[in-house]
Amino acid sequence: MSHKVIVPIGPYHPLQEEPEFFQLYVEGEKVVDIDIIIGYNHRGIEKLSESKHFDQVAFLVERICGICSSSHPYAYVLAVENILGGESLVVPERALYIRTITNELERIHSHLLWLGLAGHFIGYNTVWMWAWKYREPILDMFEMITGNRNNYAMFKVGGVRRDIKDEDIPILKKTLDELVPAVDMFKGAVMDDPVIQARLKDVGVLTKQQVIDWCVVGPTARASGLNIDVRRDDPYGAYDKVDWNVIIEKEGDIFAKTVVRILELYECVGIIRQCLDKMPKGPIDADIKDIPAGEGIGRVEAPRGECFHYIRSDGTNRPIRHKIRAPSFMNVASDKVSAVGGTISDATLTLAAVDPCYCCTERVTVINKPDNKKILNGWDLIKLSQEKTNKIKENLLK
Amino acid sequence: MEILKSVFNYLVFPGLLFSVFAGLMAGWIDRKVSARLQWRVGPPWHQNFTDIIKLSGKETIFPQGGKFTFLLSPFLGFLSASLVAAILGWSILNPDKSFSSDLIVVLYLLLVPAVAIILGASASRNPLASVGASREMKMVLAYELPFILAVIAMIIKSSGAIQLGKVINHQLFFGSNVFSFSGFLAFVSIIFCMQAKLGLVPFDASEAEQEIMGGALIEYSGLGLALFKLTKAVMLYTMPLFVIILFIGRDLSPLFVILKFVGILVIIILIKNTNPRLRIDQAMRFFWRVPTVLSVIAVVLAIFGK
User: Fold this and answer.
1) Which residue blocks in A159-242 are alpha helix, DSSP H?
2) In Å, how far is B302's CA from the nearest CA of chain A?
């Protein structure tokens, strides 16, 4: 068959819970090309952030994504503290540990969430429900520590908002102890199941060179043998004060990505345990009053990879530029190489294997159509939107 | 009077109405047990009935063109599935009165729901539906051969009678087929085929919700969709019953039939909940390598009387 058919995945599709659009060009069941169209979830957060003062922006960026709601504010406060001279100079030591604990708890819940979704995508709903069942106590821990199950409101420039109480520490440790057998179970269930291996091995392979070419980050890159991790390469928080390993797999297929994420769960548990033991007493907030003029960057290893924030301040109480680059921005693009060549069944898995997060990604909309080479900038978009609003108004008046 | 009785047999018991009721209840057991396996609560017993009633009241949206085939195929699938239910139920109630060569009719009618799905999907002119239809076709090619071979093995065992009543009577005297070598192999093979015929995980690639959004059924809404769901429900009642008659048909008193039915249903549910979905090529490879070989061995053993 040489007849090309477009199979749409999106804009609304049961595969992923967010709006996105993948056009799969298929011949029979084989995917020969793929168009990735994102931009359905643009909310103008960077612009919004310029109208809020520095304390409010932390709450705003928290709402970029319900899953990375500790990575984004962390990267943001790192960027602001970068203007002030650096996190380790500004922030009290206890706050560093609390930040690390929050960030690692988030990684646990995000990886468990992905594991469950991955099970769902290959039609294994039992894994889906079980993974989410074991994710639930982690959310309870968030509620205990931060007061919220999502959007933790934990980070502020110069420290954290809430302290971890001494009586909470044993409960946290107990929850982690109970999590480890569950992770053991998932590890066994995934690594020993012949049907899962048949579905995931040698599927959606990204080679190390492709990973470098497409700037892939996070677990997706680590599964292809690329040794990158912001937590080790550019330490922040308490990551340089505890022992842990960067998990690397060589194969680059979806199975390797799954294994990396499962093994990272053990590292997360280890980091949190060490942090709880080593955490010193002391203040949790440096009580920063003014942000001087200047520019700063913050990098955080979010569950999906490197999350990057850039802040420029002119000495007033608001940032004059805030740039966000979320890990899915690079990872989603790599589907262009990894999803082509497989069948539709494999392609859907490959799209999901990078753990895409569109609401993180969509900061700016650039539409690039190959036929008329038209790129819209911000002003064009605003004009378009105004025209559309006027049209709707006219229709309403009729 | 005879005609009225036949009509009653087809429309009410043990045919259409009863099979719909039994199928929806079986579907509920499936949903409830799956839910409990997954740490969920699961729906109340009447959920499937409510779903179907609500669905049949909804608007039916037709895709452009092919309206006749589009609406015909769900009826086709549903009627043939319920006809099988009537024939099977009739043979269990009156094994001596089953008509000659009814097994062949049953084999044909069991294939019709799959053909109906392919027809309906092709009539809907949706690219996702056509992918679903092509997958369904491949599945039919994959599971039909081992399925028929397993049935043939059982026909040979009951001294060549292509008649449900005689298969039942044979087991009445010589014990259930599953306890012989050939019977056991064919039973294992037919369990896989049953899973595929019912379109359940791991062989549900033709409807894979996460890949092709329900595939063949994507354009169906309202009554058409309700009928396809009903067809599935009736098949969930019919297929285990067929397997019971062929393989564990020694004692067919109502209580034992229910127990055996629930037993087979539990096997189906367990397979469904402990496996991920196979890709279509993997599923075909599996069917041609494992169940087909098992069925062929079963036929050979049956010829030698094992």
Assistant:
1) 168-192, 194-200, 208-213, 218-222, 230-233
2) 32
Q: In this structure, which amino acid lies at residue B106?
A: V
Residue B203 backbone phi and psi in degrees, to 5: -110, 40
Could B213 and A121 be called an inter-chain contact, meaning their C-beta atoms sit closer than 8 Å? no
> Alpha-carbon distance A191 to A184, whole Å?
10
Burial class (CB in 10 A: 0-12, 13-18, 19+), B185: buried
**Nearest CB neighbour to A199, from listed B134, B274, B276:** B276
Q: To the nearest 10°, the Cα dihedral for A51, A56, A58, A62?
A: -90
CB contact at 8 A, B244 and B187: no
Asked if CATH classification 1.10.645.10 holds for the domain at A45-361, the reply, yes or no, is yes
- One pLDDT digit (tens) per residue for chain B, 306 residues: 788 888 877 787 787 888 899 999 999 999 999 998 888 888 999 999 999 999 888 888 888 767 788 888 889 999 999 888 888 888 888 877 777 788 889 999 999 999 998 888 888 878 888 888 888 888 999 999 999 999 998 888 887 788 888 888 888 888 777 888 888 899 999 999 999 998 888 888 777 777 777 778 888 888 888 998 999 999 999 999 999 988 888 877 888 889 999 999 999 998 988 888 888 888 888 999 999 999 999 999 888 877
Q: What is the DSSP string of B213-239?
A: TTGGGTT--HHHHHHHHHHHHHHHHHH
Q: Which of B212, B274, B282 sits opposite A126 (nearest CB)?
A: B274
Please, which residues have CB within 8 angstroms of residue A317's CB and are 6 or more apart in sequence? Answer: A53, A54, A291
| Interface mutation target, options A1, A29, A130, A254, chain B, most CBs of B under 10 Å | A29
Whole-structure pTM value: 0.83
- DSSP-derived 3-state class of residue A100: helix
Is residue B276 a contact partner of residue A124, using CB atoms and an 8 Å limit? Answer: yes
Nearest to A13 among B135, B202, B213 (CB): B213
Yes or no, beta carbons of A6 and B127 under 8 Å apart: yes
Asked if A277 has any chain B CB less than 8 Å from its own CB, the reply is no
Residue ranges of the domains in chain A?
A: 45-361, 371-398
Q: Where are the domains of chain B?
A: 2-303
Which residues in B lie closer than 8 A to residue A198 (C-beta atoms)? Answer: 278-279, 282
Count of beta carbons in the 10 Å neighbourhood of residue B252 = 18
β-strands A305-313, A5-9 pairing? unpaired
Q: Do B282 and A199 touch (CB under 8 A)?
A: yes
Other C-beta atoms within 10 Å of B304: how many? 9
According to DSSP, the β-strands at A155-156 and A30-37 are unpaired
Tell me whether residues B202 and A346 touch, CB distance under 8 A: no
Shortest alpha-carbon distance between residue A153 and chain B (Å): 31
- Flag whether residue A344 sits within 8 Å of chain B, measured between CB atoms: yes
Token pair recorded at residue B213? 């959004």
* B126: closest chain A residue by CA: A7
Tokens for A2, please give them. Answer: 């040489």
Q: Tokens 């497989």 map to which residue?
A: A342
- Sequence-distant (6+) residues with CB within 8 A of A178 are A137
Collect all residues with Cβ–Cβ distance below 8 Å to A345 and sequence separation of at least 6: A29, B205, B208, B211, B277, B279, B280
Which residues in chain B have their CB less than 8 angstroms from residue A15's CB? 210-211
Q: Answer whether A26 sits within 8 Å of B131, measured CB to CB.
A: yes
Q: Which of residues 5-34 of A touch B (CB under 8 A)?
A: 5-8, 13-15, 26, 28-29
Structure tokens given for A43? 């909310």
Residues B262 and B178 sit within 8 Å (Cβ to Cβ): no
